[in-house]
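Entry for the shared binder. Reason: the reviewer on the internal report wants the predicted structure included alongside the sequence.
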Amino acid sequence: MLQTDIFRRHVAGHLGLEGIRRVVRDEMRPPPVLVPPGTTIGQAVKRMAEGEMSSAVVIDGAGRPKGIITEKDVVRRIVWQVPPDQAVDTVMTSPVATVGTDDHLFHAIALMRRRRLRHIPVVDPTGSIAGMLALDDALGFLSGQTLSIIEQLTHEESIEGLKQIKQAQVELAAALLDDNAPAPEVQRLLTEINNDIHRRVLQHAMAKMAEDGWGEPPARFALIVMGSGGRGENFLAPDQDNGFIIADHPESARLRIDAYFLELAARMTRALDAVGFPFCAGKVMATNPVWRKSLPDWVRQTETWMRRRDEEMLLNCDIFFDFRHVFGEAALSSELRAAVTRLARSNPQFLRDIYMIESDHAVALRWFGGLRQESDGGDRGDAMNLKLRGTLPLVEGARLLALKAGIPATSTLARLDGLAQEEAINPADRDDLADAFHLITRLLLRQQIDDFRAGREVDDWVSETSLSQREKERLVVGFRAIGKFRAALALEFSERTS
Protein backbone atom coordinates (compact mmCIF):
# COMPACT_ATOMS: atom_id res chain seq x y z
CA MET A 1 0.00 0.00 0.00
CA LEU A 2 1.39 3.36 -1.00
CA GLN A 3 1.94 5.83 1.86
CA THR A 4 3.03 9.44 1.56
CA ASP A 5 6.06 8.82 3.75
CA ILE A 6 7.49 6.80 0.86
CA PHE A 7 7.90 10.09 -0.95
CA ARG A 8 9.34 11.79 2.13
CA ARG A 9 11.99 9.04 2.30
CA HIS A 10 12.76 8.53 -1.36
CA VAL A 11 12.01 11.70 -3.28
CA ALA A 12 14.60 13.72 -1.48
CA GLY A 13 17.57 13.09 -3.75
CA HIS A 14 18.11 14.96 -6.99
CA LEU A 15 18.72 11.77 -8.94
CA GLY A 16 15.34 10.40 -7.95
CA LEU A 17 13.59 13.61 -8.92
CA GLU A 18 15.42 13.78 -12.23
CA GLY A 19 14.32 10.26 -13.03
CA ILE A 20 10.69 11.10 -12.32
CA ARG A 21 10.89 14.28 -14.41
CA ARG A 22 12.36 12.74 -17.59
CA VAL A 23 10.18 12.34 -20.66
CA VAL A 24 10.15 9.70 -23.38
CA ARG A 25 11.91 11.84 -26.00
CA ASP A 26 14.95 11.96 -23.67
CA GLU A 27 15.57 8.22 -24.12
CA MET A 28 13.91 7.18 -27.37
CA ARG A 29 15.85 5.71 -30.28
CA PRO A 30 15.36 6.68 -33.94
CA PRO A 31 12.29 5.23 -35.67
CA PRO A 32 12.41 1.48 -36.38
CA VAL A 33 11.85 -0.11 -39.77
CA LEU A 34 8.61 1.36 -41.13
CA VAL A 35 6.58 -0.55 -43.70
CA PRO A 36 3.20 0.05 -45.34
CA PRO A 37 0.33 -2.45 -45.19
CA GLY A 38 0.72 -5.18 -47.80
CA THR A 39 4.47 -5.49 -47.34
CA THR A 40 5.44 -9.14 -47.39
CA ILE A 41 6.88 -10.82 -44.33
CA GLY A 42 10.06 -11.58 -46.26
CA GLN A 43 10.52 -7.92 -47.21
CA ALA A 44 9.92 -6.73 -43.65
CA VAL A 45 12.36 -9.26 -42.15
CA LYS A 46 15.00 -8.36 -44.77
CA ARG A 47 14.71 -4.66 -43.94
CA MET A 48 14.98 -5.44 -40.23
CA ALA A 49 18.17 -7.43 -40.87
CA GLU A 50 19.67 -4.75 -43.13
CA GLY A 51 18.96 -2.00 -40.61
CA GLU A 52 20.00 -4.16 -37.65
CA MET A 53 16.60 -3.43 -36.14
CA SER A 54 14.73 -5.67 -33.73
CA SER A 55 11.26 -4.62 -34.90
CA ALA A 56 9.23 -3.28 -37.79
CA VAL A 57 6.16 -1.05 -37.46
CA VAL A 58 3.35 -1.13 -40.01
CA ILE A 59 2.15 2.43 -40.63
CA ASP A 60 -0.78 3.97 -42.46
CA GLY A 61 -0.53 6.76 -45.03
CA ALA A 62 -0.27 9.40 -42.27
CA GLY A 63 2.64 7.66 -40.57
CA ARG A 64 0.54 6.33 -37.68
CA PRO A 65 1.37 2.85 -36.33
CA LYS A 66 -1.18 0.14 -37.13
CA GLY A 67 0.79 -2.89 -35.97
CA ILE A 68 4.23 -4.21 -35.06
CA ILE A 69 6.37 -7.33 -35.59
CA THR A 70 9.44 -8.05 -33.47
CA GLU A 71 12.37 -10.44 -33.49
CA LYS A 72 10.41 -12.58 -31.04
CA ASP A 73 7.48 -12.73 -33.50
CA VAL A 74 9.85 -13.79 -36.28
CA VAL A 75 11.36 -16.59 -34.18
CA ARG A 76 8.18 -17.84 -32.51
CA ARG A 77 5.37 -17.17 -34.98
CA ILE A 78 6.71 -16.71 -38.46
CA VAL A 79 9.74 -18.94 -39.16
CA TRP A 80 8.67 -22.35 -40.44
CA GLN A 81 4.99 -21.47 -40.08
CA VAL A 82 4.13 -18.63 -42.47
CA PRO A 83 5.27 -18.26 -46.08
CA PRO A 84 7.54 -15.25 -46.65
CA ASP A 85 5.28 -13.85 -49.40
CA GLN A 86 2.35 -13.47 -46.98
CA ALA A 87 1.41 -9.88 -46.02
CA VAL A 88 2.88 -8.65 -42.78
CA ASP A 89 -0.61 -7.42 -41.84
CA THR A 90 -1.62 -11.03 -41.16
CA VAL A 91 0.97 -11.65 -38.45
CA MET A 92 1.52 -8.22 -36.87
CA THR A 93 0.42 -7.42 -33.35
CA SER A 94 -2.46 -4.97 -33.61
CA PRO A 95 -3.55 -2.61 -32.16
CA VAL A 96 -0.08 -1.59 -31.08
CA ALA A 97 0.59 0.05 -27.73
CA THR A 98 2.29 3.44 -28.05
CA VAL A 99 3.59 6.24 -25.87
CA GLY A 100 3.92 9.93 -26.70
CA THR A 101 7.16 11.86 -27.08
CA ASP A 102 6.21 14.11 -24.18
CA ASP A 103 4.87 11.37 -21.89
CA HIS A 104 6.81 11.03 -18.68
CA LEU A 105 9.25 8.17 -18.81
CA PHE A 106 7.83 6.58 -15.65
CA HIS A 107 4.51 6.09 -17.44
CA ALA A 108 6.19 4.37 -20.40
CA ILE A 109 8.24 2.13 -18.09
CA ALA A 110 5.14 1.15 -16.14
CA LEU A 111 3.21 0.37 -19.33
CA MET A 112 6.03 -1.74 -20.75
CA ARG A 113 6.53 -3.67 -17.52
CA ARG A 114 2.81 -4.37 -17.14
CA ARG A 115 2.53 -5.63 -20.72
CA ARG A 116 5.94 -7.35 -20.75
CA LEU A 117 7.15 -5.26 -23.71
CA ARG A 118 10.82 -4.85 -24.59
CA HIS A 119 10.14 -2.08 -27.13
CA ILE A 120 7.30 0.36 -27.70
CA PRO A 121 6.72 2.81 -30.58
CA VAL A 122 6.81 6.51 -29.74
CA VAL A 123 4.37 8.84 -31.48
CA ASP A 124 4.30 12.62 -31.85
CA PRO A 125 1.24 14.74 -30.97
CA THR A 126 -0.29 13.96 -34.40
CA GLY A 127 -0.06 10.20 -33.78
CA SER A 128 2.76 9.71 -36.32
CA ILE A 129 5.71 7.50 -35.45
CA ALA A 130 8.61 9.48 -33.99
CA GLY A 131 10.92 6.83 -32.58
CA MET A 132 11.18 3.68 -30.49
CA LEU A 133 11.71 3.26 -26.77
CA ALA A 134 13.64 0.26 -25.47
CA LEU A 135 12.95 -0.84 -21.91
CA ASP A 136 16.65 -1.44 -21.26
CA ASP A 137 17.42 2.17 -22.29
CA ALA A 138 14.64 3.53 -20.09
CA LEU A 139 15.79 1.56 -17.06
CA GLY A 140 19.50 2.03 -17.60
CA PHE A 141 19.92 5.42 -15.93
CA LEU A 142 17.42 4.94 -13.09
CA SER A 143 18.50 4.62 -9.52
CA GLY A 144 16.95 1.96 -7.33
CA GLN A 145 15.00 4.59 -5.41
CA THR A 146 13.61 6.10 -8.63
CA LEU A 147 12.43 2.68 -9.81
CA SER A 148 10.85 2.14 -6.40
CA ILE A 149 8.92 5.41 -6.78
CA ILE A 150 7.80 4.39 -10.27
CA GLU A 151 6.53 1.07 -8.99
CA GLN A 152 4.65 2.78 -6.17
CA LEU A 153 3.08 5.19 -8.65
CA THR A 154 2.00 2.60 -11.15
CA HIS A 155 1.58 -0.92 -9.85
CA GLU A 156 -1.17 -0.74 -7.22
CA GLU A 157 -4.39 -1.73 -9.01
CA SER A 158 -7.07 -1.59 -6.30
CA ILE A 159 -9.32 1.43 -5.87
CA GLU A 160 -7.80 2.02 -2.45
CA GLY A 161 -4.32 1.79 -3.91
CA LEU A 162 -5.11 4.26 -6.68
CA LYS A 163 -6.61 6.56 -4.05
CA GLN A 164 -3.33 6.43 -2.13
CA ILE A 165 -1.42 7.28 -5.30
CA LYS A 166 -3.72 10.26 -5.85
CA GLN A 167 -3.16 11.50 -2.31
CA ALA A 168 0.62 10.98 -2.50
CA GLN A 169 0.83 13.49 -5.32
CA VAL A 170 0.92 16.21 -2.68
CA GLU A 171 4.29 15.08 -1.35
CA LEU A 172 5.64 14.45 -4.83
CA ALA A 173 4.65 17.97 -5.93
CA ALA A 174 6.17 19.44 -2.77
CA ALA A 175 9.45 17.59 -3.33
CA LEU A 176 9.64 18.74 -6.94
CA LEU A 177 8.95 22.38 -6.04
CA ASP A 178 11.59 22.18 -3.30
CA ASP A 179 13.97 20.90 -5.99
CA ASN A 180 13.12 24.05 -8.03
CA ALA A 181 11.33 22.13 -10.75
CA PRO A 182 9.30 24.55 -12.92
CA ALA A 183 5.68 24.55 -11.77
CA PRO A 184 4.27 23.78 -15.27
CA GLU A 185 6.53 20.72 -15.31
CA VAL A 186 5.06 19.62 -11.98
CA GLN A 187 1.57 20.17 -13.39
CA ARG A 188 2.40 18.04 -16.40
CA LEU A 189 3.67 15.25 -14.16
CA LEU A 190 0.54 15.42 -11.99
CA THR A 191 -1.56 15.24 -15.15
CA GLU A 192 0.39 12.23 -16.41
CA ILE A 193 -0.17 10.40 -13.12
CA ASN A 194 -3.86 11.32 -13.20
CA ASN A 195 -4.21 10.18 -16.80
CA ASP A 196 -2.54 6.89 -15.92
CA ILE A 197 -5.11 6.45 -13.14
CA HIS A 198 -7.89 7.15 -15.68
CA ARG A 199 -6.47 4.49 -18.02
CA ARG A 200 -6.23 1.88 -15.31
CA VAL A 201 -9.70 2.62 -13.93
CA LEU A 202 -11.15 2.32 -17.44
CA GLN A 203 -9.30 -0.93 -18.18
CA HIS A 204 -10.50 -2.37 -14.87
CA ALA A 205 -14.09 -1.38 -15.70
CA MET A 206 -13.82 -3.00 -19.15
CA ALA A 207 -12.47 -6.22 -17.63
CA LYS A 208 -15.28 -6.36 -15.06
CA MET A 209 -17.88 -5.76 -17.77
CA ALA A 210 -16.46 -8.67 -19.76
CA GLU A 211 -16.75 -10.85 -16.64
CA ASP A 212 -20.35 -9.69 -16.20
CA GLY A 213 -21.35 -10.78 -19.70
CA TRP A 214 -21.04 -7.51 -21.63
CA GLY A 215 -18.20 -8.84 -23.76
CA GLU A 216 -15.55 -6.69 -25.40
CA PRO A 217 -16.21 -3.09 -26.52
CA PRO A 218 -18.53 -3.28 -29.56
CA ALA A 219 -16.71 -0.47 -31.37
CA ARG A 220 -13.31 1.21 -31.38
CA PHE A 221 -13.24 4.21 -29.04
CA ALA A 222 -11.06 6.77 -27.31
CA LEU A 223 -11.19 8.26 -23.82
CA ILE A 224 -10.47 11.98 -23.72
CA VAL A 225 -10.04 14.37 -20.80
CA MET A 226 -10.79 18.07 -21.01
CA GLY A 227 -10.15 21.26 -19.08
CA SER A 228 -6.90 21.42 -17.10
CA GLY A 229 -6.30 17.69 -17.66
CA GLY A 230 -6.52 18.23 -21.41
CA ARG A 231 -3.98 21.05 -21.21
CA GLY A 232 -1.61 19.03 -19.02
CA GLU A 233 -2.09 21.64 -16.29
CA ASN A 234 -3.64 19.77 -13.38
CA PHE A 235 -3.32 21.16 -9.89
CA LEU A 236 -3.94 19.01 -6.81
CA ALA A 237 -7.73 18.79 -6.78
CA PRO A 238 -9.13 18.36 -10.31
CA ASP A 239 -12.63 17.06 -10.84
CA GLN A 240 -13.77 14.88 -13.73
CA ASP A 241 -13.94 16.27 -17.26
CA ASN A 242 -14.04 13.28 -19.60
CA GLY A 243 -15.71 11.96 -22.72
CA PHE A 244 -15.77 9.09 -25.23
CA ILE A 245 -15.15 9.30 -28.97
CA ILE A 246 -16.66 6.22 -30.61
CA ALA A 247 -15.83 5.05 -34.12
CA ASP A 248 -18.56 5.50 -36.72
CA HIS A 249 -21.03 2.61 -36.81
CA PRO A 250 -24.29 1.65 -38.54
CA GLU A 251 -27.46 3.25 -37.22
CA SER A 252 -28.86 -0.23 -36.60
CA ALA A 253 -26.14 -0.85 -34.01
CA ARG A 254 -26.46 2.51 -32.25
CA LEU A 255 -28.63 1.43 -29.29
CA ARG A 256 -26.52 -1.65 -28.53
CA ILE A 257 -23.24 0.25 -28.79
CA ASP A 258 -24.43 3.20 -26.72
CA ALA A 259 -25.78 0.88 -24.00
CA TYR A 260 -22.31 -0.61 -23.62
CA PHE A 261 -20.52 2.73 -23.47
CA LEU A 262 -23.06 4.23 -21.09
CA GLU A 263 -22.48 1.34 -18.70
CA LEU A 264 -18.72 1.68 -19.13
CA ALA A 265 -18.92 5.43 -18.45
CA ALA A 266 -21.02 4.88 -15.32
CA ARG A 267 -18.56 2.36 -13.89
CA MET A 268 -15.56 4.51 -14.80
CA THR A 269 -16.89 7.74 -13.31
CA ARG A 270 -17.99 6.03 -10.07
CA ALA A 271 -14.52 4.52 -9.66
CA LEU A 272 -12.80 7.83 -10.42
CA ASP A 273 -14.96 9.52 -7.80
CA ALA A 274 -13.93 6.87 -5.26
CA VAL A 275 -10.26 7.40 -6.14
CA GLY A 276 -10.44 11.15 -5.60
CA PHE A 277 -11.71 12.77 -8.81
CA PRO A 278 -15.11 14.23 -7.85
CA PHE A 279 -18.02 14.09 -10.27
CA CYS A 280 -18.13 17.19 -12.45
CA ALA A 281 -20.83 19.57 -11.19
CA GLY A 282 -21.48 20.60 -14.81
CA LYS A 283 -21.82 16.91 -15.85
CA VAL A 284 -18.92 17.10 -18.29
CA MET A 285 -18.53 13.33 -18.16
CA ALA A 286 -18.96 10.40 -20.53
CA THR A 287 -22.18 9.44 -18.71
CA ASN A 288 -23.74 12.52 -20.32
CA PRO A 289 -24.63 11.89 -24.01
CA VAL A 290 -23.32 15.36 -24.84
CA TRP A 291 -19.83 14.02 -24.08
CA ARG A 292 -20.28 10.48 -25.48
CA LYS A 293 -20.59 10.39 -29.26
CA SER A 294 -19.39 8.84 -32.47
CA LEU A 295 -16.69 10.75 -34.32
CA PRO A 296 -19.10 12.10 -36.98
CA ASP A 297 -21.57 13.13 -34.27
CA TRP A 298 -18.82 14.95 -32.40
CA VAL A 299 -18.02 16.97 -35.51
CA ARG A 300 -21.71 17.74 -36.13
CA GLN A 301 -22.19 18.75 -32.48
CA THR A 302 -19.21 21.09 -32.66
CA GLU A 303 -20.63 22.66 -35.81
CA THR A 304 -23.96 23.14 -34.00
CA TRP A 305 -22.28 24.75 -31.00
CA MET A 306 -20.47 27.16 -33.28
CA ARG A 307 -23.54 27.97 -35.33
CA ARG A 308 -26.02 28.55 -32.50
CA ARG A 309 -23.55 30.26 -30.17
CA ASP A 310 -25.68 30.61 -27.05
CA GLU A 311 -23.73 30.96 -23.82
CA GLU A 312 -24.06 27.32 -22.70
CA MET A 313 -22.78 26.02 -26.04
CA LEU A 314 -19.94 28.52 -26.11
CA LEU A 315 -18.88 27.40 -22.64
CA ASN A 316 -19.03 23.77 -23.81
CA CYS A 317 -16.64 24.68 -26.61
CA ASP A 318 -14.37 26.39 -24.11
CA ILE A 319 -14.02 23.14 -22.16
CA PHE A 320 -13.98 20.84 -25.15
CA PHE A 321 -11.28 22.54 -27.20
CA ASP A 322 -8.67 21.60 -24.60
CA PHE A 323 -9.30 17.87 -24.92
CA ARG A 324 -6.45 15.34 -24.83
CA HIS A 325 -6.31 11.67 -25.78
CA VAL A 326 -5.86 9.35 -22.79
CA PHE A 327 -6.77 5.81 -23.87
CA GLY A 328 -7.92 3.80 -26.85
CA GLU A 329 -7.74 4.63 -30.54
CA ALA A 330 -5.46 7.64 -30.80
CA ALA A 331 -6.48 8.11 -34.44
CA LEU A 332 -10.03 9.01 -33.36
CA SER A 333 -8.70 11.78 -31.12
CA SER A 334 -6.33 12.99 -33.82
CA GLU A 335 -9.10 13.16 -36.41
CA LEU A 336 -11.39 15.05 -34.06
CA ARG A 337 -8.60 17.46 -33.16
CA ALA A 338 -7.93 18.18 -36.83
CA ALA A 339 -11.65 18.71 -37.48
CA VAL A 340 -12.31 21.12 -34.60
CA THR A 341 -9.11 23.07 -35.31
CA ARG A 342 -10.24 23.52 -38.91
CA LEU A 343 -13.78 24.51 -37.88
CA ALA A 344 -12.64 27.07 -35.33
CA ARG A 345 -10.10 28.66 -37.64
CA SER A 346 -12.71 29.11 -40.38
CA ASN A 347 -15.26 30.79 -38.09
CA PRO A 348 -13.95 34.17 -36.81
CA GLN A 349 -17.39 35.28 -35.60
CA PHE A 350 -17.56 32.23 -33.34
CA LEU A 351 -14.16 33.09 -31.86
CA ARG A 352 -15.32 36.66 -31.26
CA ASP A 353 -18.40 35.36 -29.42
CA ILE A 354 -16.16 33.18 -27.25
CA TYR A 355 -14.07 36.23 -26.41
CA MET A 356 -17.16 38.24 -25.46
CA ILE A 357 -18.26 35.77 -22.78
CA GLU A 358 -14.71 35.84 -21.38
CA SER A 359 -14.03 39.55 -21.80
CA ASP A 360 -14.52 40.45 -18.11
CA HIS A 361 -11.93 37.93 -16.88
CA ALA A 362 -9.35 40.39 -15.60
CA VAL A 363 -6.28 39.88 -13.46
CA ALA A 364 -6.19 40.77 -9.75
CA LEU A 365 -4.60 44.19 -10.29
CA ARG A 366 -5.83 47.54 -9.03
CA TRP A 367 -6.09 50.61 -11.23
CA PHE A 368 -2.91 52.06 -9.76
CA GLY A 369 -0.89 48.87 -9.98
CA GLY A 370 -1.34 47.19 -6.59
CA LEU A 371 -2.57 43.66 -6.01
CA ARG A 372 -6.34 43.44 -5.67
CA GLN A 373 -7.58 41.12 -2.96
CA GLU A 374 -11.14 39.95 -2.43
CA SER A 375 -12.98 38.90 0.70
CA ASP A 376 -13.62 35.25 -0.17
CA GLY A 377 -10.44 33.70 1.08
CA GLY A 378 -12.16 31.84 3.93
CA ASP A 379 -10.04 31.49 7.03
CA ARG A 380 -7.16 33.13 5.16
CA GLY A 381 -9.07 36.45 5.12
CA ASP A 382 -8.72 38.69 2.10
CA ALA A 383 -7.07 36.80 -0.73
CA MET A 384 -6.73 36.54 -4.50
CA ASN A 385 -8.22 33.73 -6.56
CA LEU A 386 -5.10 33.13 -8.62
CA LYS A 387 -6.86 30.74 -10.96
CA LEU A 388 -9.81 33.01 -11.76
CA ARG A 389 -7.77 36.24 -11.67
CA GLY A 390 -4.41 34.88 -12.79
CA THR A 391 -4.08 31.81 -14.96
CA LEU A 392 -7.60 31.83 -16.44
CA PRO A 393 -7.28 35.15 -18.35
CA LEU A 394 -4.03 33.88 -19.87
CA VAL A 395 -5.26 30.35 -20.59
CA GLU A 396 -8.38 31.66 -22.33
CA GLY A 397 -6.49 34.19 -24.40
CA ALA A 398 -3.84 31.70 -25.53
CA ARG A 399 -6.58 29.23 -26.49
CA LEU A 400 -8.46 31.81 -28.57
CA LEU A 401 -5.43 32.99 -30.50
CA ALA A 402 -4.25 29.39 -31.02
CA LEU A 403 -7.63 28.44 -32.49
CA LYS A 404 -7.56 31.51 -34.73
CA ALA A 405 -4.08 30.58 -35.95
CA GLY A 406 -4.92 26.88 -36.42
CA ILE A 407 -2.43 25.74 -33.76
CA PRO A 408 -3.47 22.26 -32.47
CA ALA A 409 -1.49 22.40 -29.20
CA THR A 410 -3.50 22.34 -25.98
CA SER A 411 -1.06 23.36 -23.23
CA THR A 412 -0.84 27.08 -22.53
CA LEU A 413 2.94 27.29 -22.90
CA ALA A 414 2.91 25.27 -26.13
CA ARG A 415 0.21 27.58 -27.48
CA LEU A 416 2.32 30.62 -26.60
CA ASP A 417 5.31 29.04 -28.35
CA GLY A 418 3.18 28.34 -31.43
CA LEU A 419 1.81 31.88 -31.45
CA ALA A 420 5.33 33.32 -31.30
CA GLN A 421 6.39 31.07 -34.18
CA GLU A 422 3.39 32.22 -36.22
CA GLU A 423 4.23 35.83 -35.29
CA ALA A 424 0.80 36.25 -33.72
CA ILE A 425 2.60 37.56 -30.62
CA ASN A 426 6.15 38.86 -30.39
CA PRO A 427 8.85 36.79 -28.64
CA ALA A 428 9.28 39.29 -25.81
CA ASP A 429 5.57 39.14 -24.95
CA ARG A 430 5.71 35.35 -25.16
CA ASP A 431 8.56 35.34 -22.61
CA ASP A 432 6.73 37.74 -20.26
CA LEU A 433 3.54 35.68 -20.40
CA ALA A 434 5.43 32.42 -19.85
CA ASP A 435 7.20 33.95 -16.83
CA ALA A 436 3.82 35.03 -15.43
CA PHE A 437 2.38 31.54 -15.97
CA HIS A 438 5.36 29.91 -14.25
CA LEU A 439 5.06 32.21 -11.22
CA ILE A 440 1.28 32.02 -10.77
CA THR A 441 1.15 28.24 -11.11
CA ARG A 442 3.99 27.90 -8.59
CA LEU A 443 2.18 30.09 -6.06
CA LEU A 444 -1.04 28.14 -6.58
CA LEU A 445 0.65 24.76 -6.17
CA ARG A 446 2.45 25.92 -3.03
CA GLN A 447 -0.80 27.19 -1.50
CA GLN A 448 -2.65 23.97 -2.35
CA ILE A 449 0.10 21.89 -0.75
CA ASP A 450 -0.20 24.01 2.41
CA ASP A 451 -3.99 23.64 2.34
CA PHE A 452 -3.77 19.87 2.04
CA ARG A 453 -1.25 19.53 4.86
CA ALA A 454 -3.30 21.81 7.11
CA GLY A 455 -6.47 19.82 6.50
CA ARG A 456 -8.17 22.75 4.72
CA GLU A 457 -10.23 22.50 1.58
CA VAL A 458 -7.85 22.70 -1.36
CA ASP A 459 -8.78 25.73 -3.46
CA ASP A 460 -7.32 28.55 -5.59
CA TRP A 461 -7.15 31.38 -3.02
CA VAL A 462 -3.78 32.89 -2.09
CA SER A 463 -3.36 35.62 0.52
CA GLU A 464 -0.99 38.49 -0.16
CA THR A 465 0.44 38.02 3.34
CA SER A 466 1.77 34.59 2.29
CA LEU A 467 3.93 36.17 -0.42
CA SER A 468 7.41 37.58 -0.09
CA GLN A 469 8.06 41.13 -1.22
CA ARG A 470 9.89 39.79 -4.28
CA GLU A 471 6.96 37.52 -5.15
CA LYS A 472 4.53 40.44 -4.85
CA GLU A 473 6.67 42.54 -7.18
CA ARG A 474 6.98 39.71 -9.73
CA LEU A 475 3.24 39.03 -9.52
CA VAL A 476 2.44 42.65 -10.33
CA VAL A 477 4.77 42.45 -13.35
CA GLY A 478 3.11 39.20 -14.45
CA PHE A 479 -0.39 40.61 -14.06
CA ARG A 480 0.60 43.63 -16.13
CA ALA A 481 1.86 41.37 -18.92
CA ILE A 482 -1.41 39.41 -18.89
CA GLY A 483 -3.41 42.65 -18.76
CA LYS A 484 -1.54 43.93 -21.81
CA PHE A 485 -2.24 40.61 -23.54
CA ARG A 486 -5.96 40.89 -22.75
CA ALA A 487 -6.04 44.44 -24.14
CA ALA A 488 -4.55 43.16 -27.40
CA LEU A 489 -7.23 40.44 -27.49
CA ALA A 490 -9.94 43.09 -27.25
CA LEU A 491 -8.58 44.65 -30.43
CA GLU A 492 -8.04 41.29 -32.13
CA PHE A 493 -11.62 40.16 -31.57
CA SER A 494 -13.41 43.46 -32.06
CA GLU A 495 -16.16 44.07 -34.60
CA ARG A 496 -13.70 44.15 -37.46
CA THR A 497 -13.40 40.35 -37.25
CA SER A 498 -17.10 39.90 -37.97
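Summary line for the report: Residues 1-16 have pLDDT under 50 and may be disordered.
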